[in-house]
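Request: Not sure, any thoughts?
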Amino acid sequence: MSPGRGWWWGAPIACLVSVLTAASPARSHEHWLDVGGPLAAVGDTVSVTLSSGHYFPDAVMAIKGKVLQPVEILSPDGEVRTIEFVSQEKMRMGSVVIESEGLHVLRFTLKRPRAKEPSYEGKTFLIAGDGGDDPEAYVLGHGLEIVPSGPLSGIAVGGEFSVTVLLDGTRVSAELQVMPEEGKTSYLRAAEDEPAVVRASKIGRLLIVASFDGRGCSLILHVPDGPETER
């Protein structure tokens, strides 16, 4: 993630993307990182939840500490900070102070003891103030991640957007599930040479998960009912 990355909203629109990974086309156990909404102001203390469950958005258990690596927030200038979490019965809860304007990336990794590679990775985006609309800013470039192929500033109910799946910055073919807060799960495939097209059919959160070679990743999107004014 480069210090110059931007945000996809010239005039911020309520669109939140969160990226994680899943294990199979069936209803598998998913994990997601949520900040409640995509917009914040500099100086805000933002609540962060890390949840796990079979039926998004219902959380059923807190992720075990032995597999959870430090949860981090990457600021627009490249600074990396660790977010401290407290384990509750069904989720982990934490908070972070937003210290600068621009695109902030929150990420987590699950890795079993002595395993060489992570089993699950996730990220979500948070915008403070103004930012650009550059799709290159959505890419971490390492690990497994779902990446929007174009700007998301125009997303709206009934609209479509495309996503690719990257492993260490290289496109891979992967199975995807699209899970709205309310409604049915749909199944897609992203190829190395062709992105998957996701339809934003309902207002609210949308969880997208992908699986590749036994690893997983996901994306939470907040679909607005109209333009959201800047805080």
Q: What stands out?
A: The first strand starts at residue 18 and ends at 19. The chain is about 0% helix and 45% strand.
